[in-house]
Amino acid sequence: MRVTAMLVLVVGGVLIAPPAVAVADTTPPSAPQQLRISGEFRGEAILRWDASTDDSGVIYHYWVLVDGQQRARPAATTYNIDTLVQLCRITAGSHVITVQAVDPSLNRSLPSNPVGVVVGSGIGS
Least buried of 17, 53, 63, 103, by fewest C-beta within 10 Å? Predict the structure, then answer.
């Protein structure tokens, strides 16, 4: 026979039980789809992609990777890539961009399709 003990505390007439054990989420979200340069705003390249999905029902944020390095963390599915030049996180010129989705358990998706872009001088390719 197996006996399991559980500690229960009564404080001021209120029953306090230990928190339920949560099952860890290890499933990553789907990869962002159709990463593209959708146009420009004031001569600056705007990235867009189709939203990822996750078994939790929530995407926490996305990572914008420039030449393989994490450079921005937008919550939306658009990003003005020239902002990174203005913030001195990347230099003006040619770069390869990918995007990854992150769920609330910090699982990362596979990267999106890569897109070439020239920043600091208009729309990419």
Answer: 17
Candidates 43, 45, 39; CA nearest to 64 is 45
CA distance 95 to 8: 58
Tell me the whole-structure pTM to 2 decimals.
0.76
Identify the three-state secondary structure at position 55: coil
In total, the chain counts a number of residues equal to 125
Which amino acid is located at 29 in the chain?
P
Residue partners of 63: CB distance under 8 A and separation at least 6 = 70, 72, 73, 99, 100, 102, 108
Torsion of CA 25, 30, 76, 42, to 10 degrees: 150
> At 21, is the pLDDT very low, low, confident or very high (cuts 50, 70, 90)?
low
Per-residue pLDDT reduced to its tens digit, 33-55:
999 998 765 667 899 999 999 99
Domains and CATH numbers, the chain: 30-119 (2.60.40.10)
